[in-house]
Structures are given as C-alpha cells and as structure tokens.
Amino acid sequence: MRRLPALALALALLLPASASAQGGVGNLFVADNATTAATAAAAAPLQPAALGNHTVNLPAGFSIRQIADGLKAPRFMVFDQAGNLLVAEAGAGAVDRLFSSPNGFGSPTTLISGLDAPSSLALNGGELYVGETGAVSRYAYDPAGAAGQREVVVPDLPRGGHSTRTVVFGPDGDLYVGVGSSCNICTDGDQRRAAINRYDADGSKYERFAYGLRNAVGLAFQPGGTQLWATVNERDNQGNEIPPDLVTIVGEGENFGWPNCQPPNATPQQPGADCSDITPPTVGLQAHGAPLGLAFYEASQFPGDYSGDLFVAQHGSWNRQPPAAPKLVRLHFEQGLPVSAMDFATGWQAADGSRWGRPAGVVVAPDGSLIVSDDDAGVLYQIDYHG
C-alpha cells in the first residue's frame, strides 16, 4: 500500500494560532517552514455569500443556496444512476429521495421509513444499503419506484456509545462498515468497535479490516485507486489541542492507536503503553473539530485545480473553548497526495460561539456542484461555481 512521504506525514500536527491567523488555513501544520508558507498561500480569502438571513463565506465565484428544509438530522447522502439524491435522515428513521429535474431537485419524499437512526447509504448492483445503528440493511432499488423489502445483511451491530454506522463499497466489491467505540477511552470487548470492518456484499465473511480508530465516521475510496480514506473523531478531555482529529488513509491490518496511543506521534496514553507498531495518520485537523462526511471532487464544474481534491465536513466541537467552528475544509491534492488544506466554507458559527447550523455530510452532484447536509438546521445546501 502506498504511504505518504515523511514530509507529508508531518501534516498530522496542529497549526499554531498565530500561523492560522496569518495564513487563513486553520487546519494543518507542516513542519518545514517553506512548506508551511506554501500551504498558507494556497488559502485564498473567502467572500460573504448570502444564504437567506445568514451568510456563508466561500471562495470567489461560488454561491450557496438551500434546496431542502424541515428534515430531522440529515446525515450522509448518495446519488443514484438517474441523478436523484438519497438522504439518510437519522432523526426521522428514514431514507428520503429528492427527484432530479431540469430545474433542480424536487421536495424530499420518504423512500423508506421505520429505520434505526440511519446515518449512511451506499448503492451496489441495483441495491441500496443503509447503515443503521444496530444493523446494515439492504433493499432492491428502482430510481423511479418504491424500494424493495428490507433484508438485514449485517445483523446485531453493537449498540451504545458512538451510534453512526458508515457503509461504503470498495473497488474490490466488498462492503466496508465503520463502527465507533463504546466510550471515550476504554478497552472495548467487541473487536468490531473502534474499527472498520469488511464483508462480502451479502454480509458474509466478516473480518476486521483496520482498528484503533476511535470513531471513523466518514469513509471514501480515492477515485482511480484502492486507497480507503476515513475521517476519525479522536478522544476527548485531553485538552483544547490534544489530540488532532484525523483524515487518513486506512490500510488492511493497520492499528491507529486508540485507546492506548495518541496521534499523531503514537504518544502513550498511559505510561508503559506499547506504541511501537502504530500507523501514523495522513492528515491531522483541529482537535475536537469533529470531521464527518468527505467526498473527492472528480467533476468539472469547479476550477481545474479542484480536480482530485477532498472536501471534508467539519461538524464543530462540543468540548473545546473556544469551540472549533463548523465548516467545510478542502484538502488540495497533487499527484494523488494531500499537500495543503484550506477553509472552503465558513460562517455557521458566530464570534461568541453560537451556531445556526452544522455541516454533516457532503457529496458531489452529477452537475459538479456540492450538496451539503446540515443535521442541526435540518436542511440541505447546494454550492455552485459561476466563475
């Protein structure tokens, strides 16, 4: 498996506040001074963009609008082959569908109901997979019709603690399922927890793919390859800046250290902990920023230098003072590797720490726009580029 060079691995440290203010990056630190300057220079100033009674700050040439409201905790999304948008509505226990039309999207309609806090969706071979808290279920899927009968393919997932269950299919055709820990720092008795697990598409042949991942929420395979990326919410109550949350490549059999070793340098959580065989993370974001959804940009609507970049929805912190703000972060890639990071969309949090929204999921639409779910405001946004 390809790993990043030593310099890029230094991304997994925090940016000092002074550097953040000067560069406007606020997400990553690169140990080499010259690279730090290049990273800061990549972050163009954001400009206010109107969104109803609020303002979101975006790069020049971009706009944002609301395309749906009244939802209960919408989380991750997926587009079907007809261009319709499917949304996991965790708070309503439902999957919604927004039909595509030449004029945009229709209003959300309920496709499936009665679910157990669904947080993610995946399409595979004419079937829709749903990551529910206690199971992974699937349904025969018709873009123009009703969903088929529920079939549980992965039953009896552990409950308690972190409740999201993220599903994604790899280029190998296997089903990958992220399951968070039951606690902040503890020894979990179920090896499926704090791990990414792999199954055949029918839920058989379980194996633990990678572990030591306190809460791997977002999962995405990098286009054109086999590398699995994950957003990881790291441990709490260690201080404002310790440890960083992660956006990292995850390989088979790798151990990322939770609960015994803290990223980015595998620092022992307690004296005497063995941290000799821990995989270093690829990128470290602001501690307690809570990165959730992620999506690689492979469309053509945005400027050319966005191609191959990774968008990350940062949910914002509950346990940091001042709280890390909700926002969208852009990781810029060159030759398939991240080289810099910058804020792409901000403004959901006021100077006093109050908020009017929290991005949770992000997906690239067939027309090249970004669709963003906000599980706090219960809405969906669409971000377009107009040049």
Fill in the keyword field for this structure:
387 residues; mainly beta; Neuraminidase; four-stranded antiparallel β-sheet; 3 helices; disordered N terminus
Brief account:
With 387 residues, this protein is mainly beta. The protein has a single domain, classed as Neuraminidase.
Description of the structure:
By secondary structure, the chain is mainly beta. Helix content is 5%, strand content 39%. It has helices at residues 6-9, 17-23, 33-41, and strands at 47-51, 54-58, 62-68, 74-79, 85-89, 94-98, 100-101, 104-105, 109-112, 120-124, 127-131, 136-140, 151-154, 165-169, 175-179, 195-199, 207-211, 216-221, 228-232, 245-250, 261-262, 267-268, 283-285, 291-296, 310-314, 327-334, 337-345, 359-364, 370-374, 379-385. The strands form nine sheets. The protein has a four-stranded antiparallel β-sheet, with no helix packed on it. The longest helix is centred in the first third of the chain and has 9 residues, at 33-41.
- The name of the CATH architecture is 6 Propeller
Shape: globular
Q: Largest sheet at a glance?
A: 4 strands, antiparallel
**Sequence of strands across the biggest β-sheet:** 3-30-29-28
Mean pLDDT: 89
Stated plainly, the CATH topology is called: Neuraminidase
- Name the assembly state: single chain
Residues in β-strands, percent: 35-45%
Structural class: mainly beta
End-to-end C-alpha gap: 38 Å
Cα radius of gyration in angstroms: 20 Å
Helix fraction by DSSP (H/I, runs of at least 4): under 10%
- Name given to the CATH homologous superfamily: TolB, C-terminal domain
Report the CATH C-level class. Mainly Beta
Q: What's the tally of helices?
A: 3
- Count of the separate structural domains: 1
